[in-house]
Amino acid sequence: MSLVVSAGSSGPDLGAVRLALAEMAAQRRRSLWLMLALVLLLAALLPWLANAYWVKTLTSALALSTAVAGVALLYGQLGLVSLCQYALLGAGGWVALRVSHGWHWPFELCVLAGGLSAALVGMLAGLPALRLKGLYLALVTLMMAGGFQVLITAIGFPDGGPGWLGRMMGSERLLMARPGWASGDGAYLAYSAAWLAAVLALIELHRRTRAGRSWALIRRGEAAALGAGVNVLLYQTWAFGLAGFCAGVGGALLAGAVGQLDGRGFGASDSVMVFALTVVGGAYHWGGALVAGLLLRAVPSLLTDWGVNGFVAQMVFGAALLHALITAPGGVIGQIQNALGALGRWRLQRGGAT
Amino acid sequence: MIEMDKLCVQFGGVRAIDALSATLDAPVCGLIGPNGAGKTTLVNVLSGLVQPRSGTVRVDGSDLLKKSPLQRVRFGLRRSFQTEQVVEDLSVWDNLQAVLDHVPAGSGPRLEQLARVLDYVGLLPVATRMGLRLNLFERRLVEIGKALVGQPRLLLLDEPGAGLTEHEAARLRELLCGIPDFCGAQVLLIDHDVDLIAATCSQTLVLDFGRRLALGPTREVLQDPAVQAAYLGVSE
Q1: Is residue B224 a part of any domain in this protein?
Q2: What is the ipTM of this complex?
Q3: B144 is in which domain, residue-wise?
Q4: What is the distance in angstroms between the CA of the first residue and the CA of the last residue of chain A?
Q5: Which of A161, A189, A228, B143 qualifies as a cystine partner to B99, CB 3.0-4.6 A?
Q6: Residues 6+ apart with CB under 8 A from A267
Q7: Domain total in chain B
Q8: Are the Cβ atoms of B101 and A214 closer than 8 angstroms?
Q9: Does any domain span residue B179?
Q10: Among the listed ranges A10-19, A41-50, A248-257, A342-351, which one has the minimum average pLDDT value?
Q11: At B72, which CATH number?
């Protein structure tokens, strides 16, 4: 049967449709600009407000937030549970260190190389795993994280030495060179926030396009997505690649923050913690990545500041995860949104009453 | 036109579709049968989610079983599910756009095509409303709208009337009857609502235990004593 165009109808009012769509697009642009403005405001304020210790802690938190944004993308947009994000963060960090020490690339290129290589690793490693779902996907990605832990413990991170692995034999390990204008810790904190803003914007822009709509269909149901013509494997792989990019950028920023990376800090259990705190922070809103980054780094530091063992944080996180899974699926950021919504409604009612 | 010949589907020891042969050539066809008759299995076979053990299926002369599920969608096959699949954090417009992203677009600008479909199903005034805020009827209409975008050739609608009020079901009937004129697509309607089937379908296939129990003009099929005994619970 061929397509028959209905005749005799005046058709829909396209002017009104265009107007409504333009308004919808304008709202989305406003929310994107608001997000960028808030993150960049943080970038501008934090170096002035925090002391040296907290500047370093917050820089690490922002680097981890960049990686968390990838986990949130996979979980929030596609319902995929990936437990290898910390390994991808390590992979990105390794490549960034390697190209920085070996070829002295500009820092921005090192970050991009870290991001792109982690994206590639994520896509290649994820390709067979993406035929799996739920618990099985989680287990396979966790095994990958375990494999990376073994590998990185054996080869270590490049620290300015010769050869392909770039390992220094003596004790004089070289630090990764930061960009000239962000060599100070405060400036580097702002620089890391700018990268985080860029990564969050990249994800938000994806969400508004064909990729984001396809991810939404996949999350709703793979059979329905397939029925709508979505190439499920392609779009899942795409998302895995983008999540890997986020992790790689986070790893490179972390390498730049500390100057070097230690293989002992990239255990498989860290990936589990990243996922858990992504859920606690909120996987459906960009702000959740910020919250999760702070939980990962700032809360243990805060406890240490207060003279409490930082590992107590894990107990608190366990309770928070339980709370998020049972009563607050939108996480901390979802609860903040709800509270702001309730406040807005209350003010409206109050205004109406007077 | 759907032509099935000796179609067999087996799940372990259960024969879900048993040597089914039928030709459905009416613009709106009905598919009914008691629970477990094999209706949804047949829809899954047509859409490519289930592979038959043997037999052939041709749609408008084209061998459907040689096409992958994605190729079938591009060919013009669309389906809706028993459970509506509206994405709640996308607007009505984006729910339809998500399908149009992946299917061959018809003639004319995409905006115009989507607006035309939304106008047809009556959702244009709520085009920017988020899926979360839609009621069940609107969700069902979104599902039909999704099936109408692009250049559909065959729509498989699995219980689109489930849970609707009488007034909503009447509106749905009008919509379903108008689809062949709206876009030229054939409709295969699966529903337990015999009134809906009688009001919209000129030809109906009845399945029972995966076998063809009856096929013909809907009025005659519904009067068939074997159908009444098996499906409507009336003794012969």
Answers
A1: yes
A2: 0.89
A3: 2-230
A4: 63
A5: A228
A6: A86, A149
A7: 1
A8: yes
A9: yes
A10: A10-19
A11: 3.40.50.300
Cβ-based burial of A50 (10 A; exposed 0-12, middle 13-18, buried ≥19): middle
For A27, nearest residue in chain B (alpha carbons): B128
Instruction: List pLDDT tens digits, range A305-348.
Output: 888 887 788 888 888 888 888 888 888 999 998 999 899 889 88
- Shortest distance between the Cα of B151 and any Cα of chain A, in A, equals 6
Q: By three-state DSSP, how is residue B165 classified? A: coil
Task: Decide if B235 is inside a domain.
Answer: no
Q: Which pLDDT score is estimated for B234?
A: 60
B109 belongs to a structural domain: yes
Please check whether residue B102 touches A, CB under 8 A: yes
Q: How many CB pairs under 8 A join A and B?
A: 106
Q: To the nearest whole percent, how much of chain A has pLDDT over 70?
A: 95
Residue B7 is encoded by which pair of tokens?
Answer: 């179609």
Q: In angstroms, rounded to a whole number, what is the distance separating the alpha carbons of residues A169 and A313?
A: 37
Percent of chain A with pLDDT over 90: 44
Over residues B34-39, mean pLDDT = 86
The overall pTM is greater than 0.95: no
Residue A174's pLDDT is 80
Q: Which residues of A232-267 are buried (b: 16+ CB within 10 A; e: fewer)?
A: beebbbbbbbbbbbbbbbbbbbbbbbbebbebeebb
Considering only the beta carbons, identify the residue of A4, A11, A226 that sits closest to B69.
A226
A2 vs B79: CB contact, 8 Å cut-off?
no
pLDDT at residue number A8: 39
Residue B235 burial (CB count, 10 A): 6
Query: Which residues does chain B have within 8 Å of residue A217's beta carbon, measured at their own beta carbons?
Result: 85, 87, 98
Q: How many residues belong to chain A?
A: 354
Burial zone of A201 (CB within 10 Å; 0-12 exposed, 13-18 middle, 19+ buried): middle
A279 Rama class: left (phi>0) / alpha (psi -120 to 50) / beta: alpha
Q: What does the pLDDT look like over A119-149, one tens digit per residue?
A: 999 888 777 767 777 888 889 889 888 988 8
Residue reference for tokens 């807005």: A344
Structure tokens at B103: 């299917």
